[in-house]
Amino acid sequence: MDSIDFKKYTRVIVLVFSLLILWPFFNSLSNSNDFEIFMGAANRFRDHLEMYDSKVVYERYLHYYYSPLFTFLLQPFAQLPVYRFPENSMLPNILLSMLCAKLVWNTLNLFFIYRIIKIILGIFSFDKQATQILFYSILIFLGYRWLHINIRYGQLTIFLLFGILEAFCNPKANKWFKWSPMMIAINFKILPIFMYLKLFFDKRYKAMIGVFLGVLLVTFLPWFFIDKVYFMNQLVSWLHAINPVKTSHVVQVGEGGFMDLGAILTKYFTATNAPKEYYIYFAKLSVSQLFWLTQILRVAFLGAITFLILEIKKIPQNKFSNYVQVSLVCIGIPLIFPHQRDYSFAFFIPALTVVVFYYLQNKTLFNGVQKTIFFTSLLFMGCLVFFEIFSIETRYFIIGLRTQGIGAILFAIAYFRLIYQLKDKELTGSF
């Protein structure tokens, strides 16, 4: 493939990907998503009302679990005049504040996606341009759904992933500012705190202290601008709401559709059930038994990740070593933390790039069983078949069986096996 053809195919891929991303971008503006919850909390924050009490519910009877800082940053939108677009307009009954907030967040998501792609493409390189084009195409096909549902449903996962990759995988990032997105991400949604595991293994103790102080600083930022008593009350309420040992975070059926380890165990090993879901269980564990079983499996996954990272560190490093370690930690985030839905599997994107890269480099690495497991896991997670083509009843059935979560576990196990296999191989670009 000559350079002219390569540029032509690249332009086509960029155009197709851009059009695909713009679909959820505009779709989210006129449809309900989690920004109704965020703006509901921001309005209560503006009026100095309680945001986190269990009796306070927002759109679709859901609760708000993100930080007070997030609602503080949404205040410019909460202060806009109350204006609702006419029923017969292109944005029927949409609030001006909601439209502006979604437009800004969706635009930021486009920037985050751009940065994620730039970082990933800066790590992987190919001898043949045709293979590089195939790499781009496969990743768009397999990873698109995670980007789509994050934008469409107004989620923060893309930002969280951007913060992690910017901090750990961008060698050109300014050393003083590269941690800032991850600090804010940890405050918004505690999930990236899992990356402390990576910092600990890297023996970057100064960075650990710096990130902690940075998170502390941004957490208390609203304290300087609003009523201090109200802010401290909301901060305490928030910390209580996200307490991981609360019963609501152990038996996860309140909202349905969770896909993490705890949710899968709740589904199949207790007699409880979420509304509109297929009712099935293999055992009737108590809350205490479920709690300990969940913790044991979480520790097992954490142990596997720790073992693989330490094994990789024994090998002379090159440009892939750090990225693979980050991908292993990212895989643990949506499986180990409670209340994770399918859009959280965007954290699998770094691992997915590793799988696709090595598959294109050397297909003989993957035996029949590995190919089957990877194919099945991607099918279950909706990467091969877009779930939105099914009827709402079929989608409820798929969600009710925790199919995406089971697929994620299968993918994680196959990925762990692949990384253990690769550490003993002498390959082009091996770590």
Question: What can you tell me about this protein's structure?
Answer:
This protein is mostly helical. It has a domain at 243-431. Helices cover 61% and strands 0% of the residues. The protein has 18 helices and no strands. α12 (261-269) packs antiparallel against α13 (287-313). It is globular, with a radius of gyration of 22 Å. The chain starts with a helix and ends in a 9-residue tail after the last helix. The relative contact order is 0.10. The mean pLDDT is 89.
Brief overview:
This protein has 431 residues and is an all-alpha fold.
Break the fold down into its secondary structure elements and pairings.
Layout: H1 3-27, H2 35-46, H3 68-73, H4 75-78, H5 96-123, H6 129-152, H7 157-168, H8 180-188, H9 196-201, H10 205-219, H11 228-241, H12 261-269, H13 287-313, H14 319-336, H15 349-361, H16 368-380, H17 392-400, H18 403-422
Helix pairs in contact: 1-6, 5-7, 6-15, 7-8, 7-14, 8-10, 12-13, 13-14, 14-15, 14-18, 16-18
Overall radius of gyration: 22 Å
Q: What is the rounded distance between the termini?
A: 28 Å
- Overall, the morphology is globular
Order of helices and strands: HHHHHHHHHHHHHHHHHH
Keywords, separated by commas or semicolons:
431 residues, globular, 61% helix
